[in-house]
Hints:
Layout: H1 5-15, E1 20-24, H2 31-37, E2 42-45, H3 49-54, H4 58-63, E3 69-73, H5 81-91, E4 96-100, H6 109-115, E5 119-123, H7 129-135, H8 139-145, H9 149-153, H10 159-177, H11 183-195, E6 199-200, H12 204-210, H13 214-226, E7 230-233, E8 249-252, H14 255-262, H15 269-286, E9 292-295, E10 301-306, E11 314-316, H16 328-336
Parallel strand pairs: 1-4, 1-5, 2-3, 3-4
Antiparallel strand pairs: 6-8, 7-8, 9-10, 10-11
Amino acid sequence: MVIRSFWLEHVESAWKERSLLWLRGVRRVGKTSLCRALPHVEYFDCELPRVRRQMEDAEGFLSGLEGKRIVLDEVHRLAEPAQLLKIATDHFPSIKVIATGSSTLEATASFRDKLTGRKRDLWLTPMNAADLADFKGTLRRRLVRGGLPPFFLAEADPEKDFQEWIDSFWAKDIQELFRLERRASFGKFVELLFAQSGGTFEASRFAAPAEISRASVTNYLAVLEAAMAVLVVRPFSTRRSTEILSTPKVYAFDTGFACYFKGWTEPRPEDMGHLWEHFVLNELHSWGWRPNYWRDKQGHEIDFVLAAPGRSPTAIECKWTQAAFDPGPLRVFRRFYPKG
């Protein structure tokens, strides 16, 4: 088992703020492995019927665990997961709980409402730069294979694994919560969206090829975002007439899936800059940032902008080679926003 030191430190830090930590992330990103790597924890796999029976009496279950650190893995398998976690935080604050579950569970109103203000969220992203050191891998392999540990570590090309992941995602995440119909249309939409990963999103571009309405396109995107399968980067602006105000950019959640749907088994030098931009976005998310992008109506663009409330914006340009860097967009951006 690879010890992911960056994330273990984040878990310990989060537990200092709240007794309940919600560990979220897409399937196969390594949530279970990370939890099992934590020292001095009791592990409960909620997929097992006997474990679920133990938790039917939440108060009785928790009373025997006071002062301990526990993992509730796949907590969405419980009949009322939010109720159990609420009782733990309100009546057993000495118990440190880390809970994992379906990436779609937190999209439910019941889960959000019962745990508002009671939990600390930690988003386990695909492998970041710190993980590369722990996994002793190369950046190029990470960009092409992606950051899901089983895919990254596989000896053989994991091409079949990508499609199996999509099939499982549809069956266990999308159908479980959202009950979408028309699987073929949804699958075509995902394929088109991932193939143009990193581009601006216009609903009309997907409606006809996927054979769905523009309203369905917008709904499908919202579902994918809630399920953490896409990263939606919205424009930064102060509502100047020369800035793009509403058109988002949409990225596949992982570079490996972008490569798979683009058909890139051996990316060309000009493709690496695109994958590097994805990787930088993943890195920013792993540190807790939610970046925007900036573009004006003359076509000048900044890849990412970090804009914390009350602070001047930080502009980030992602280039694979020095020769690809053009300072022009940064100069234009700084004319609008000289501080930062």
